[in-house]
Amino acid sequence: MSGRPASAVLPRSLRARLGLLAVLAAPVVAVLGVLYAGHGEPGRADRWIVPPTADSVRPPWRRVALAMDFLGEPAGALMLVAALVTGCLLLRRPRAAVLVVAGAATTVGAATMLKHLVGRTIHGEGNLSYPSGHTAFLTALALAVALPEAGRRGLGRAAGTSLVLAAALVAGAAMGWAQVALGAHYPTDALGGWCTALVVTPATAWLVDRTADRVAGRPVGRRPGSGSSDRR
Length: 232
Hints:
Shape: globular
Helix content: 55-70%
Order of helices and strands: HHHHHHHH
Oligomer: single chain
């Protein structure tokens, strides 16, 4: 094949832009976490967007919200991850399959850790809410699919960034809406979950590439079949 690493899940052309995006997203996660640490009520921004209740959406949209919510529950998440991994393996993209699992696991793990650190609750003690793990999970999966696809299609910086951001926005907005509509999270929880995925998933993709290249015995970042004189 031609110019780019055939199996890389983090396109080299997008690394700088995604790194900048992560640098911008990380302070959002941190600032929101500090602002709402230990709180059990919606903040001013939450009330401005929508007063969170347990019954703020009616049929047929409630069914849509419940279906979205199911995708973030253990059974639904397992089914979704299994389907994506199977698809990657059938298309002979094992590194992408690894990213689906690793990206989801590390992002959800980070969100869970942050929940215990921040201690924000909704609907009583014990219901930790910040950041939204459901929103982080689905955004991570969208990124895990979009990143390798941008590389496989050989998209440039602008087109590749647009594809990745569009996938993240659609997934994050859909799940965030469902969580707020069902009263499971505040809007700022959904934003925090989305930003958590923007920080963690691209970093995980970079680690997957580095690890896979080392296991394959290739210099990190070197194209398969390229000689030592190739320094592009």
